[in-house]
Amino acid sequence: MTGGAAGLPRGIAVALARDRYDVHFTYRPGGTMPETTLKLIEAEGVSAHAHPVDFFASFAEVQAQLEQIAARVHVDILVHGVGPMIVRRFERASEEDYDAMIDGNLRSAIQAAAAFLPTMRAGKFGRIVFFGMNGSSVTLPASGLSLYAAAKSGLVAFARTLAQEEGRYGVTVHVIEVGDIRDKQSDRAELRRKSAENAVRRPGSWEDVADAVRFLVREDADYLTGAVLDVGGGLTGTYERKPQ
């Protein structure tokens, strides 16, 4: 699990621990520290390990960090949770914004796949799950998210192509298009007591996303690959409400 120290990836990591998976996750040095996620995973009675990886570093540095993990850990399920978002109109975007959105969302996914696919191919089994945004698969326009949306649509193309190439090795690849989930801490029961501007009229939770991941990484889900799964409560636009 990449980016497991906070947000939706933390919840997904805990959900996988409840399914009895040992969980290794990355965290960004200088960002949210891994202790909380480690404790939550270990409370489920499985092994938990945190690895520092700065996906904003140079290509070579990220590659070296991931290769070190791959040399020590047998990874046959990769859930790539890293995916920073900057909301800013393109006319105000900077070179730093470009690097953060393209490298943070697309390059990071490509490098993670490259690091862990050799083990999956050798073992004739693998599951990879990436995260897009609502509408990535159809290049839905998103005001204020030009670079982010471009990276996520590119990620869908990468994932679908990877699914075609890696299926012969028993590796499946999917994308979950996450809706406008702003509360990343509350559970489903709590959020069912609130309202939202989508088809199901409630906000999404980390549990909703985690359940989709749990299904896609199952061993007997081997006939399903290249799927783009919408977990957005029936949302047809980019946002449930216009961002401020």
Give a structural overview.
This protein has seven helices and six strands; from the N terminus they run H-E-H-E-H-E-H-E-H-E-H-H-E. Helix content is 41%, strand content 14%. It has helices spanning 7-18, 35-42, 59-72, 95-123, 146-166, 188-191, 206-216; strands at 23-27, 48-52, 77-79, 126-133, 171-178, 228-231. The longest helix has 29 residues, at 95-123. It is an alpha/beta fold and 244 residues long.
How do the strands line up in the largest sheet? 3-4-5-6
Estimated structural class? alpha/beta
Query: How many distinct helices?
Result: 7
Poorly predicted regions are none
Query: How many strands in all?
Result: 6
Helix content: 40-55%
The arrangement of helices and strands along the chain is: HEHEHEHEHEHHE
Main sheet overview:
4 strands, parallel
The coarse overall form would be: globular
> What integer is the average pLDDT?
96
Question: What gyration radius follows from the Cα positions, in whole Å?
Answer: 17 Å
User: N- to C-terminal separation?
Assistant: 31 Å
Give the DSSP E fraction (strand runs of 2 or more residues).
Answer: 5-15%
Topology:
Layout lengths: L6 H12 L4 E5 L7 H8 L5 E5 L6 H14 L4 E3 L15 H29 L2 E8 L12 H21 L4 E8 L9 H4 L14 H11 L11 E4 L13
Parallel strand pairs: 1-2, 3-4, 4-5, 5-6
Name the descriptors:
two-stranded parallel sheet; single chain; alpha/beta; 4-stranded parallel β-sheet; globular; 7 helices; 244 residues
Summarize this entry quickly.
By secondary structure, the protein is α/β, with parallel strands linked by helices.
